[in-house]
Amino acid sequence: MPQHEDEQPCPKQEASDSSVVLYTTSLRGIRKTFEDCKTIKFLLGSFRVVYSERDVSMHMEYREELWGILGGRVVPPRLFVRGRYVGGADEVVGLHDNGMLRAMLQGIPLAPSARPCGACGGMTFLLCGTCNGSRRVNVANGARERCPDCNENGLVKCTLCHVG
């Protein structure tokens, strides 16, 4: 989907003046991608800003959302600040090295704690309580159907810490 010069791609429902969205992966299959994601998470953590981490390996909807925003298959990490696309790891680290990332994050709310969530350990997802992660539930006639509460991995978003 081509963008007009004045239009910026942005995650759905995340174009507010105080939003930061980071698309990541927690899979270690491709070391550079995983390390790049850790680097950007470390930078955001060092500024202590509140951000929404969208792990494309934990929830397919996030992967599809990212591909739709940027118009094709892209690899995480991808950072959006205030609804504007900032870039991947090289761009974000470059902005940090030049002192521009701090200015870009000015005014973003600060995280209340540096400790991970006590419910999910900072993963932002929990095992589904309805199906215990099996993705199947029993129905009236004894058959098993897809659980309506969880994603493709048998997980639900943590209601205590998940932002966005």
Automatic annotation (TrEMBL):
Ranges of residues in domain Glutaredoxin: 20-86
Which PROSITE patterns does this entry report, sorted A to Z?
Answer: GLUTAREDOXIN_2 (PS51354)
Q: Which InterPro entries match?
A: Glutaredoxin (IPR002109), Thioredoxin-like_sf (IPR036249)
Q: What does UniProt give as the signal peptide span?
A: none
A Pfam family it matches: Glutaredoxin
Please give the PANTHER family that the UniProt record associates with this protein.
EMB|CAB81925.1-RELATED, GLUTAREDOXIN DOMAIN-CONTAINING CYSTEINE-RICH PROTEIN CG12206-RELATED
Spell out the protein name for this chain: Glutaredoxin domain-containing protein
Look up and give the organism this protein is from: Salvia splendens (Scarlet sage)
